[in-house]
Structure formats: structure tokens, C-alpha cells
């Protein structure tokens, strides 16, 4: 018999830690190879982790709810020597499916570059000046955020010993990029946050807990210029007590992240909304003609696929809607990476279709079907929910007439698709006389960041989408 270490996998190049949210097997249970053995929650996605080999779960080392670094041994599996020797998944690098294995069509995502050390004189100036405003960072779609400045390595000749490092510097060196982003975004200091991780390390949950207590910075720590930067803390509501018979359910990790992100987005961006009505009669006719053909290829052709195709094709002509705010600058994204919100029983997730403007209608429909299915099965990799540049949400699938969504930071716009249904409509006949007719119609609502997107920009985009959908070419199907 042999024992195999089961480790916390690195589910994405920028992921440094994960939370073991639920054990699917108990000590002593028989486990089949590739059978899901536990669930993890990262900062981007929930996923089920398969067993690397068949055997018996001999030991559990990390309990439910614990957050540990990647490659930490979470359990041990007892198996026969032959199986252990032939199992390709016994090494930590293969203990979970890699992003490339899950979605081979997706291009590789480069790792986040490490913080660049500053010269001694620059670091000294940074230490005395207030931090600049943090760019809007999406816990779900991260971009390259500002991180606390790090001093030059004392071993590089700066004349400082490791003992001279401040507590803030030592904590910064041990913290993950995500934690540093959250600290910068909420104008906090790592030294003020009690760490519960290994060796006192500050984790993402530590930052969330600190924010939930609503602890502001003291007056002496406030930035020198209130005109350029305002401290940001989470606003706590009144303490509500349950009544007899009520059921109290603590928030899950994904619910906490969603709540924090939505409050942050409302606070950061100037939300404005525009709504337009679209006649989908042309799309409905094409869909009816092609649905069987697409079905034979294993693809469900939906109205959403037509809409997503039109959006992806139109965005390059409206770059401000495929942009992000960084301080007092606008970043116009070259790539069109389309996020499509998927409602789950335990929350909301936004998988991303990379390079969506290069897909055909069939490719778009297949990508939407695939990502939605794997999102519901907890089989997405974190890389598949990152680097979106524009988001589509579809409340209309539940019958909603129109919705006005909150922006998915740091994106500048999000489109809500209302219910597509038959409605009475005034049409002009060939004789020029108006008449009532039955048409397939629906609403499209665009929420946009008025800091960089003007109303005219948003309305031109919506008007083009309407024309594209109402005159959708048969050759594009």
C-alpha cells in the first residue's frame, strides 16, 4: 500500500490560495479515480477537485472553511503501489485539471507581473506621500492594479538589514496579489488587519472581516488631500435580529464576494441606463430555420447567441464601451472578451468568452452553451472568469421585461437582455397604411459608466445593435 498526497491545486496562474469549502468524501470512504473528492473556492470560481487515483481516503488535514496556500497537502489517499506508480495525477502539478485541459480553445493567460522594486529615493518619497487613488478592481475580473510600493531589496546594496524592515513591508511581501489589491482599493493598511493565515499572513477573508466591522482609518492616517482621495469603508446597515421561526443562513464565500463587489461598483462608477426595444422577428425566423441543424451539432441556438454575436461585432466600433477606468485615464481594450452571466443555485458567476469578435454564430452559441454547462457543474477554471471587457446578463430568461444591472468592474458597460416574446406592434403595410401586427420583441438595457461613456455613445451603440438584429444576415448563420 502507498499513500498519495492530495494538494490544494493552483486553479489559475494568478491564484495563490484557495478555500476548502466542502468535503465530498469522509475518512475511510472508497474513492474512484477522477471522482470528485472535495470542493474548493478561489477568488474567482468554485470547483470540484477529482481524486488522483483510486483508493481509500486515509487522512484529512484541512477542514472545511479553511483557506490555505496552493500546493498545501489537504489530505492523503491510501492506494496500492501499482496504481500509485501508474497514476499520472500523483504530482501536485496534475492534481487538478489545468485551465488548458479544461478549455483548449482558450489562449494562455499571462501571469501577473511582480511589483517592480523602486529606487531608494523613490521608495522614501512614496513612504511619506499618501497613496494614489486605487483603480477600480473587479474581484471577479482583475486587471493590473496598483500595489503597495516595496522597498529595494536590502541584499541589493541599499544598506538596510532585514531587521530594519517595517511590519507593513514584511506583511506586503507575504501577502497575495489579491489581498494587496483589496487593501489598496479600500484604502487600508496591512498592519492594521489581524492575519489568520500561516505565520500571521493576512488572507482575503481577513480583509473582508475587517471591512465588515467598518473600521475606518484614523485621522492621522487620512490622505493629505481630501480632494484627490476619499477613504472608502464598507457601510454597515442596522443590526437586524431574527424573529422566532426565522431561518438564519450565513453568506457563502461567493455571496460575500458578490455583495462586496456590487457595493463597490455602485460607489465607484456613475451609473446611467439606456433602454431600447428590438424587433426580433427576423432573428426568430432564422433561429427556427437553423435550430434543428445546430441541434445536430450538439448546440442549442438561442436568442442570446444572436445578441452576443451582434455585441461582439459592434464593440470594436464603439471602443469606449469596451474600456476601463484607471485613475484619471481610460484604457481602451484591444481584445473583445465577452462575459456572459450565469445564474447558479448558490450565486452568480460570469464566464468569459475570449476573442468573441472572431467567432461565428455557431462558435458563439457553442461557447455560451459550454461555459454555462461547466459553470453549473463547477468545472470552470479561474482563468475562464477573468479579463472580461464587456458583460451580458439575461434576466429575460426568467420573464423579466427589462433589467438595469450594476456594472461589472472595471468594465465600462453591461447589457441586460429582457424577455423575448410576441407583442402587439404597429407596422406599416406595403400600401403605407399602419396596422396592428404580432411581432417578436424584447428590450435591451445598457448600464454604463458616465465618467467615460456619454449618453450619445451608449445610444449609438444600442441603435446599431437594434439594426444588426433586425437585419441579421442569413449568411452569418
Kindly describe this structure.
This protein has 477 residues and is an alpha+beta fold. The protein folds into three domains: 2-97, Beta Barrel (OB fold (Dihydrolipoamide Acetyltransferase, E2P)), CATH 2.40.50; 120-221, no CATH class; 271-476, 2-Layer Sandwich (Chloramphenicol Acetyltransferase), CATH 3.30.559.10. Helices cover 25% and strands 22% of the residues. It contains eleven helices and 19 strands. The protein has helices spanning 81-86, 99-102, 120-128, 167-174, 177-185, 204-212, 253-268, 281-296, 303-314, 361-376, 455-470, and strands spanning 2-7, 17-23, 30-31, 36-41, 46-50, 55-60, 67-69, 73-79, 271-279, 323-326, 329-332, 338-340, 342-344, 347-349, 352-353, 390-393, 413-417, 421-428, 434-449. β10 (323-326) and β11 form a beta hairpin.
Write the layout of secondary structure elements.
Blueprint: E1 2-7, E2 17-23, E3 30-31, E4 36-41, E5 46-50, E6 55-60, E7 67-69, E8 73-79, H1 81-86, H2 99-102, H3 120-128, H4 167-174, H5 177-185, H6 204-212, H7 253-268, E9 271-279, H8 281-296, H9 303-314, E10 323-326, E11 329-332, E12 338-340, E13 342-344, E14 347-349, E15 352-353, H10 361-376, E16 390-393, E17 413-417, E18 421-428, E19 434-449, H11 455-470
Parallel strand pairs: 12-16, 16-17
Antiparallel strand pairs: 1-8, 2-4, 2-7, 3-6, 4-5, 6-8, 9-19, 10-11, 12-15, 13-14, 17-19, 18-19
Key terms:
about 475 residues, alpha+beta, OB fold (Dihydrolipoamide Acetyltransferase, E2P), Chloramphenicol Acetyltransferase, 3 domains, 7-stranded mixed sheet
